[in-house]
Amino acid sequence: MSTMKIPTMKERADVKVTLPVQGALRSFWMDDYKSGGAPENDKIQKQTSPTTAEQNEQDKTEGEDEKKEDGEKDWKENDKETREEKPLPGSADIVVVGSGISGAAVVWELMFGEGREGVGKGKGKGKGEKIIMLEARGVCEGATGRNGGHLKAASYRSFSHHKKVYGVQEAVRIARFEYENIMRVHALAKEWGIGCAGWLGETVDLFFEGDEGDGDGDGDAGKEGDTEWDEAKKGVRELWRGFEMVERGEGDGMGNKGEGVQEKEKEKQKGGVQWYEFFEAEEAREKFQVTEGKRKLLGALRYMAGSISAYKFVRGVLGLCLREEEEGRGKVGGGGFEIFEGREVVAVEREGEGGDGYTVRTADGEVIKAKHVVLATNGYTGFLRKEFQGLIVPLRGQVTGQRFVSGNNNNHHREAKAEVPRNRTYSFIYPGGFDYLVPFPTCLETGDGKEKKQQTYILGGGLTYAPGSGVSEFGEMNDGVVDRDC
Q: Binning pLDDT at 50, 70 and 90, where does residue 74 land?
């Protein structure tokens, strides 16, 4: 009987990076947004909204004009021509390759970033650049478009490492940066009216003992310092001590003398960067309705988090960039911003030795010259720049949308016994890995025009169940199939 050889990490990292496959799996967010997502005009806000059914009824009374304002239009509504048919221009100031969240962030910063001309909403800050975005497939149909939408920092897990490598001052700055990233994404979506099913609330990390399949079956899971739960508590306490040191001006930094006492205290309150709550196993089991299987619950940690549809968010951001430019408010100053789908970039070449500028070539033989090129290409970067082969390694993950319809117990649906609060996400942490769950209450539209209450869960993870504890998924670029082992 033959056994499958498990590859090493080096072998997987050495797999040659290719272009994105055509015909990638379409995600929950792309094809099922109406029945699986929030209403089109769902604004970003803290979770104080009415129930989904009430919200949907309210949405029906709102005018079409309101539904189409600001970022509610995605990029296609703001871009009249089919970008797969229109030829590329011969030149541009800046070419951005990739239309995921990194590419969108670059374009947004170029058009509206600090230090650019103009101030405030509706007043772009570009300097006259002509910006072209090239996408091998459809806009935001790569990893960003299939993202589970779980926005959380979990800074306690990395704070100790950052402190050791960079010092306590920088570790605190990183933790604040991670926290602010979450807050500002939601603030931007709310300010500009990008309907992306976002909310801010809390997350709960549930910690479990290992089992024999985790590779730690030495019976030591309960010893102090050996469990993920012990490490989590130590991590949070070290983060708290680090913030206290910086506030006092101790350690390797100069403190935060520019911040008032009120601001510092706010960080410790519920929803702040320092807000963490511990729950030992018995209390956590009851409070969060945990039913244990083969793994024993050790404890839980609660802190701030949120959720967003990255697909809708990115398309909304790019739509705003296109609209602002078309209406003359983007101030890219006679330059302009355009998106071209179906353009596989196969080469980025420097203009001569030490030359100024680049030549960008596509698989169809089109050529565009640019002063600057930004590769927002995620795991595919090694294809265009060979020096990144083995440094930026593709990793295929798994995420699913699970549905349970209350009151409907037939062959196609299972009745949900309990609904998870909409403003709370979960991570299930065990030795060697974790899974996560993001509840997403929706309404299911039926053929008779009625709506039935529906609970949807975005469930991701499972990497450690793949061959080689997940090693087989590194270097994997085929996102057109699902790995049934995960």
A: low
pLDDT tens for residues 104-118? 999 999 988 765 443
Contact 80, 356 (CB under 8 A): no
Give 32's Cβ-side CA count (13 Å radius): 18
- Report all structural domains of the chain as residue ranges with CATH numbers, in order of start: 69-148+310-388 (3.50.50.60)
Strand partners, 207: 299, 429
The amino acid present at 280, given as its one-letter code, is: E
Q: Alpha carbon of 465 to those of 80, 150, 210, 462: distances in Å? A: 45, 21, 13, 6
From 99, 107, 114, 100, select the one nearest 130 (Cα to Cα).
107
- What pTM was computed for the model? 0.81
Query: Measured on CA atoms in the order 16, 150, 374, 86, is the torsion positive or negative?
Result: positive
Residue 29 near residue 145 (C-beta atoms within 8 A): yes
Q: Which of 206, 235, 226 is nearest to 301 (CA)?
A: 206
Count of Cβ atoms closer than 10 Å to residue 101 Cβ: 22
- The answer to whether 151 touches 318, Cβ cutoff 8 Å, is no
What mean pLDDT do residues 178-200 have?
93
Nearest to 427 by CA among 461, 391, 477: 461
Burial environment of residue 469 by CB neighbours within 10 A (0 to 12, 13 to 18, 19 or more): middle
Cα 213 from Cα 330, distance rounded (Å): 55
**What is the C-alpha separation between 110 and 129, in angstroms, rounded?**
9
Backbone angles phi, psi at 128, to 5 degrees: 95, 15
Whose CA is closest to 327, among 124, 132, 117?
A: 124
